[in-house]
Amino acid sequence: MYNDDVELxxxxxxxxxxxxxxxxxALATIKPIQNTVATLKGKxxxxxxxxxxxxxxxxxxxxxxxAADLRNICARLPEPLRAxxxxxxxxxxxxxxxxxxxxxxxxxxxxTYSFGGSGKQVIQVxxxxxxxxxxxxxxxxQGDDSITIINTLVFRLAAMLPYSSQFTLIDPIKMGQSFPxxxxxxxxxxxxxxxxxxxEEILTDIVRIQNSFLDNNTERLIDVDEEILGNAKFExxxxxxxxxxxxxxxxxxxAKIASTGPKAGKMVILDxxxxxxxxxxxxxxxxxxxxxxxxxxxxxxPWNLGKGFRDSVRNTDTINAILDGLSRAKxxxxxxGFSDVIEMNPELWWQEDSMEVISAPIGGSGSRKNDIELWFxxxxxxxxxxxxxxxMTGAGKSNLYHAFILSLASxxxxxxxxxxxxxxxxxxxxxxxxKLPHARVVSLSTSPQLARSVLQELLxxxxxxxxxxxxxxxxxxxxxxxxxxxxxxxxxxxxxIDEYQTIFEDDKTGLGSQLMISIASQSRSAGIHxxxxxxxxxxxxxxxxxxxxxxxxxxxxxxxxxxxVTSLQEFGSKGKQLIRGCTETGQxxxxxxxxxxxLPCDTGRVAYIDEQQRQQMLxxxxxxxxxxxxxxxxxxxxxxxxxxxxxxxxxxxxxxRLSEDEWILYANKPHHFGxxxxxEWYPIERPSVLWLGKEMNIHGQAKVILRRRAHxxxxxxxxxxxARLGMLSYMVAQLPINAQSSQYQVHILDRSxxxxxxxxxxxxxxxxxxxxxxxxxxxxxxxxxxxxSVMAEFTKRQDMDxxxxxxxxxxxxxxxxxxxVKELVKKDNSFGMKxxxxxxxxxxxTLLEQGSEYGIHLVLxxxxxxxxxxxxxxxxxxxxxxxxxxxxxxxxxxxxLKTRDAAKLQADGKKPIYALHIDQMQNRPTKFKPYCYSQDxxxxxxxxxxxxxxxxxx
Length: 954
Ligand SMILES: Nc1ncnc2c1ncn2[C@@H]1O[C@H](COP(=O)(O)OP(=O)(O)OP(=O)(O)O)[C@@H](O)[C@H]1O
What we know:
Layout: H1 10-40, H2 48-76, E1 103-114, E2 120-130, E3 137-141, H3 146-160, E4 165-170, H4 195-213, H5 226-229, E5 234-242, H6 248-260, E6 266-272, H7 284-287, E7 291-293, E8 307-310, H8 316-328, E9 357-365, E10 368-379, E11 382-384, E12 387-390, H9 397-411, E13 417-423, E14 439-444, H10 448-471, H11 477-482, E15 492-498, H12 511-522, E16 528-534, H13 545-549, E17 554-557, H14 562-567, H15 573-580, E18 587-591, E19 602-606, H16 611-624, E20 632-635, H17 646-652, H18 660-668, E21 688-695, E22 701-706, E23 714-717, H19 721-738, E24 744-750, H20 761-768, E25 775-777, H21 780-798, H22 802-807, E26 810-816, E27 827-828, E28 834-835, H23 839-850, E29 856-862, H24 865-871, H25 874-878, E30 882-885, H26 890-897, E31 915-919, E32 926-930, H27 936-953
Parallel strand pairs: 3-6, 3-7, 4-5, 5-6, 12-16, 12-17, 13-14, 13-15, 14-20, 15-16, 23-29, 23-30, 24-25, 24-26, 26-29
Antiparallel strand pairs: 1-2, 1-8, 9-10, 9-19, 10-11, 17-18, 18-19, 21-22, 21-32, 27-28, 30-31, 31-32
Helix pairs in contact: 1-2, 4-6, 9-16, 10-12, 19-20, 20-27, 21-23
Adenosine-5'-triphosphate (ATP) binds at residues 335, 391, 393-399, 585-586, 605-606, 608.
């Protein structure tokens, strides 16, 4: 509230009391005389005279009390509301309050009264005129004193509204010299020779205020709630030397402002020479029908108790102290509270049904605090499919997202509505939302590829839904819900993308634009909506923006630069006018009709929700939800962790090890149901699935499946130890997923440099997850011994019956830092050919060529391509079905993969680490983020997670 301490009008009430009391005491004086007359007539009761005296004394007392009360009220009045500005110590005053000028003090009234022998008493009471609460235009008689009167009004108003009053002081004759202090006022319009231009600006401002704040419920700016008003200004327009110094146009404009301005907080005061005629015989009373003389009009100033005096400030010290104080005044931060907009009581949440529409109040306009609303779906047969938001930085865009998400989440249960929340490349706006029970996907620092995959996912979901509706003989989401949701309740889906230009980055094929157009034009009927935001509506890289925008009916704009508003295509002229008025954080213009001029836009203020409130609501929402919650969190800036692998979750949701048939079902299951989406899972081939990291889409997990087919080996190359060791150690730790320990063997050679941080990571996997089931060597010599026995096993299997052979355990030979195994470097032999000088090398080569068909798989890791080529020739390299490359030079990438893609993996910086998987059989590289080794603690956490899963199956 502005007038939270004392209401100026309270002096009016007090004065009324005094007036009544004085009148009563006067009556009491008359009464004895009347009664004496009655006594003389011999008809009075005997004690009448005594009663009369008592009444008289009582009324005298009441009058004295009322006067004392009035004096008290006057003494307690805030400084800007006191009778005389000159008597205030402005140096001490802190200019921290706004006192809303419904009335304005223009002088003082001296009330003098005396009762019997108690002597005279004088009280100085402020005299007010109705101001912004009226439609009046005021004048005072032009004369020597004009300047003092104007100054006093200006200083008074400025002191009442230190940061919400603006002044336009028009002084055509002296060209501004009459108001030398103008520049020192915090908010003013400087007036040059072109008076009508300034007046036109004011009229434009009036229209803007009418559109932004006023409607049938809120007719005057003074009635707009301060939290919505923000820093909008009340304005005083003074026309000195009126009318002689004004041309006809300016006079007409002034008259128009005088009649339309007061409701919009703009008041005109004329320094009037009433002897001067208006040009062309115009009538003052016609042009200014509401004109009132400040000091003369009886209706306004009932000087009916005492003597009246004008207030006047002449003392330059007072003037300087006020102006200095104003320059120190800081605009008060005003915010519309979130609790004014939405229901905060969790018990009353989730009462709405999303069948036809989802709607979220996000703020308010005028005096209502929750009438700005964003809605999607169908309302009165009107569709609203999708929305977009544009705002310059700092305009309050993030807060709008929060208000929108939480407002929706408080109204609809997770069964009715779910979110996909995507932060663009640099963003972490949605990082607290994994807690939200409605969040299906939360993606932070999202890469362009992932952003596009989210659109693809929604499009797939749309197709699945449409297919289901069709099979049921239903047309769309609404009819499905109306039919009682025969296949289970479907929520509406709301995709929100901040910095949505990410979708179109690095997108040579234009896939992002196509996906966007498809969703924009088709998804509403499936109950899928999107709300995307950026600093501008149109963003770079988007092809055919018109095809997209024509399907995005909801336009939301916040503060933008003037040039941007001018060039906007997404709003008509009326909307643009309103956007220009968004000068503060949180102000917003909303159109559900594509910004068209034909239907008015809503404008107002978004409610502010602070961090603490947001966290509290998220906590409450999460506590309220009793159902299952499977939010997928994707953080583009972080490496993935194996414990977050959703395919692994689905697999271990089974209480025991899967049977062969169950494995087939699991493998065939699509990604979005947590399966492997692999239709070639034949148990007879003894497939082993090993996950390597996270693909650049919502559900995909990067993996290799090693089967008993030719060349099912893997080569890992790149100089990031973190990534290679991470992938290798987690692969080792995953071996128990596929078979019991009797059904697989592992031989590890780790050539990590002793004492380095990498040494020990692989052995940790063996220790803590495999219970030392693997043979572990640190030298090739030791490893060779194992190789020899594997070779013997290989020879044995070659001679076996195929069915028996397929039953034999799988054998994994894992070599880390293979570039440090000198025995693997081929040398010229006596025939001048490149050959291994060691049997171990020969054995490895043999197994590479034929081993995997017999269940013997090689997994080798090198830190560079050059070392790979020293160990293997081109044909050997092609014998590894799976190749995983980390960032490398273009030349190496080409040599290793026949594409330059591995040279571009870290184009945006060192972190996160990306990798490329090439499956020779598929010929399409898959980019992913590998599981990395960073800290022992995290490594062990993940190992423990896996061990716990295996314990379940034991
Ligand atoms: N509706 C609002 N009412 C009052 N203050 C607000 C409102 N919205 C935001 N603010 C204030 O403005 C600050 C910036 O808001 P916000 O972070 O939402 O802006 P933004 O447009 O997202 O900025 P950026 O683009 O730089 O991230 C907030 O910290 C808050 O103090």
